[in-house]
Amino acid sequence: MKPVELKNGIYWVGAVDWAIRDFHGYETPRGTSYNNYLIVDEEPTLLDAVHLDFVHISIENITRILEPQKIKNIIINHIENDHATGLEKILEYTPQANIYITEKGKKGLSKFIDLSKYKVNTVKTGDHIKIGKRTLHFIETPMMHWPDSMFTYIKEEKILISQDAFGQHIASVERFDDEFINNRSMDELEDSVIDYYANILMLYGNVIKAKIEEIKKSGVEIEMIAPDHGVIWRSHIDKVISLYSDMVEAKAKLGAVIVYDTMWHSTEQMVFPIAKGLEAEGIPVKIIKLRSTPKSVAIKEIWKYRGVIVGSPTLNNNIFPSVADFLTYLKGLRPKNRLFSAFGSYGWSGEAVKDIFEYAKAMKLELFEPGIRVLYKPSEEELNKCYEFGIAFGKALKEYHAKF
Predict the structure, then answer these.
(1) Cα 197 to the center of its chain, rounded Å
(2) Per residue in 51-94, pLDDT tens?
(3) Active site includes 11?
(4) CA gap 349, 42 in Å, rounded
(5) How does pLDDT run across 268-317, given as a tens digit for each residue?
(6) Catalytic-labelled residue, pool 51, 83, 137, 145
(7) Is-contact 15 1, C-beta < 8 A?
(8) Is 82 a catalytic residue?
(9) Which of 62, 183, 312, 359 could form a disulfide with 327 if both were Cys (CB 3.0 to 4.6 A apart)?
(10) More confidently predicted of 253 and 215
């Protein structure tokens, strides 16, 4: 794709990755983009690099606008590999450029690049540089979602370069939110925002909440938010900020997600009467079978709904591997304000349900115990008990949801 102008003299010069489907273990069915930005001013300034595999495209885009050697400043908002591995190649064209980065960013980046060869300046919240007609203000955002992260605010243009915040993993020909919505839909864009937040930023909710409040109190005016992935926000800024505000509060719909896997279908047979019991209580149900569904999809659905029920057979005195993998992933994201229960089948030992609850206790979720388990194949009586379990969980879920 060619460069795209955001505002007069400010360009997107990134690359679109149509093929990626695994982003450090997080499934990306829509692909992604690596966004970086070039400001043409008295001191031409590049904001962020891109993934090494796509840096040649970014350099080509820069070259369409000016000779890369003319770049005077490079801002590094985030040093994760998908943003910073292409930096060294860019520096071959711009060895005299001033690099601006946080102190923690410098420390981390020095593990990948010999920074002693370059002019590196560390910055913190409140610092700014003048590049001609424009002023760049720096806002540290540690743990959103790495310790080095920061935003760059272009004051005169009211553009917030937000690195990973407000991004989405979307590969598209549309560069702006209104274009994407016109050609596709707001629902798809919102789903991508939720998917991205749930799988990458969920555990940093308190940090994000504080930073949003800090920016609001500062009186910073924002007419455009330009993240490092996905489309650029220019028409629905209030919408995405409101969406983030809801997400950091762990708001959820009344509903339940049943996430399970099965070995010889016994656990699977328990799913459907549980779901019918929930439905009898008026609870919307989403059923997700692991090994058939990416775990990132399960995480997104859990983010949407208040109730979570996890099912697993017991294998070798343990949780079934795909379910254990999912629970480990979920635990790392630290969900909150969810009612949780478990079910499963077993042959002789039956530890899986108990062990699933241990994960939930570690996540400090509200528990609906003791769950339900059956020996070998569920009988008709046991299937009826699964139905009753679904009804009981549904009643408890309505009471729990009413607290929020």
Answers:
(1) 3
(2) 999 999 999 999 999 999 999 999 999 999 999 999 999 999 99
(3) no
(4) 72
(5) 999 999 999 999 999 999 999 999 988 989 999 999 999 999 999 999 88
(6) 145
(7) yes
(8) yes
(9) 359
(10) 253
Torsion angle (degrees, nearest 10) of CA 188, 190, 196, 198: -120
Question: Which pTM was predicted?
Answer: 0.86
Which residue out of 17, 27, 48, 164 is catalytically annotated?
164
CATH fold of the domain at 4-248 = Metallo-beta-lactamase; Chain A (3.60.15)
What would the CATH number be for the domain defined by 256-399? Answer: 3.40.50.360
H helix or E strand, kind and range, residue 75: strand 73-75
CA–CA separation, 145 and 21 (whole Å): 21
Gap between the Cα atoms of 390 and 379, Å rounded? 17
Q: Is 203 left (phi over 0), alpha (psi -120 to 50) or beta?
A: alpha
Respond yes or no: is residue 137 known to be catalytic.
Answer: no
Taking CA atoms, 322 is separated from 288, 289, 293, 319, 377, in Å, by 12, 10, 11, 8, 20
387 is catalytic: no
Active site residue 204: no
Looking at 94-150, list the stretches that DSSP marks H as alpha helix, in order from N- to C-terminal side: 103-109
Burial of residue 320 (CB within 10 Å: 0-12, 13-18, 19+) is buried
In the structure encoding, which two tokens stand for residue 84, read together?
Answer: 């910073």
Q: How far apart are CA 51 and CA 94, in angstroms?
A: 18
- Among 393, 394, 202, smallest CA distance to 299 is for 202
Where in the chain are the domains? Answer: 4-248, 256-399
